[in-house]
Amino acid sequence: MKLRQRLRQPGIEIFILIAMVMVLVTPLVWFTYLPTEDGPAHIALASVVRSLFNSSDAAIDRFYLLHSFPNPNLLGTALLVGLQGILSPIVAEKAMVAGFVAGLAFSVRYAIGPPNRLDWDIRRSLRRVHRA
Question: What's the CA gap between 5 and 16, in Å, rounded?
Fold first, then answer.
């Protein structure tokens, strides 16, 4: 059996995809803080929103107000609020970024379709994730 045919088997294909996603996510462990420009602002906003829901700080209640109109970063804030309930803020940010990387890789794989229908290359989908 040729190597390309072996790689197209469903069990091996998903194993390779998971292994490559793990390779892309492992640098998140190396950094204490993620090297992003607005990561600290998102972490702080999630902490403020979390304290607004808990009503634990009167000063925050006095200066901040939750609006019902969604902002563009609502998904990230909601994920960080939920993750900060079980993880520290820094680890919560890393978990969210790892989830986005893995989700993007698996969504590209899903969009390509099954391996027996299309001639696809797993490296192509992971290159797209790495460039995003």
Answer: 14
